Known about the structure:
The protein is α/β, with parallel strands linked by helices. The protein contains six helices and ten strands. It has a single domain (3-236), classed as Rossmann fold (3-Layer(aba) Sandwich). 35% of the residues lie in helices and 27% in strands. The strands form two sheets. It has an eight-stranded mixed beta sheet, sandwiched between helices. The chain has a two-stranded antiparallel sheet with strand order 9-10. It is globular, with a radius of gyration of 16 Å.
Amino acid sequence: MAIREQLIEYREGSTVLEGFFCYDDARPGPLPAVLISHAWNGRDEFVERKARRLAWHGYATFALDMFGKGKRGETTEQCQALITPLMQDRKWLARRITSGLETLRAQPQVDARRVAAMGFCFGGLCVLDLARSGADVRGVASFHGLLKPNGLPAHKVHSKVLILHGYDDPMAPPDDVLAVAQEFTAAGADWQLHAFGNTLHAFTNPHANDRANGMAYDEAADRRSWQALRQFLEEVLR
């Protein structure tokens, strides 16, 4: 086994983006692939570790870039400034994540017919919007994602949908959970939702430690959600 890693520049409009591509070159290709969308601070070591972990299991992975090459947020204010333009223009958000999807599909190691997407926090919203756009991806998985609808005309959802949610997440309260369930049912999606009790936002991030603002790591929810993801990917990408 030899895990190969490379940074790939690509574009959406005039914006230069840079994603992290990872795969095991000892496995015969083309490989099933997973697109990984980052949280509100930008592409970082957290999503790159997820990419390496899935590459070890035989997937080609691409941790995309939603903000632009080299753009990262360090403070709450900086992160909010990065996501706000995309949150205010969800058509643009869909175009930007689609550019990452097309870049992943173009890699010679990838089986373009067998692609799924996953994301964390803001990235969870991004992959749900990818499904909402009617994109041809086998499945999308949202980890503690924002669940607000995009307000755009509804498309038939072709992707299977997995939502992994902390029930006490203040950024996606129970009303949002009910609404997203109704939304994906109306769109004809094959969807499932795993809600973890006594669990806050950012439950997969070991550095999340801000209970006052509703964010905390939870080892059990992290482990269980990863197991659910593995089963989901085995189903949708076989």
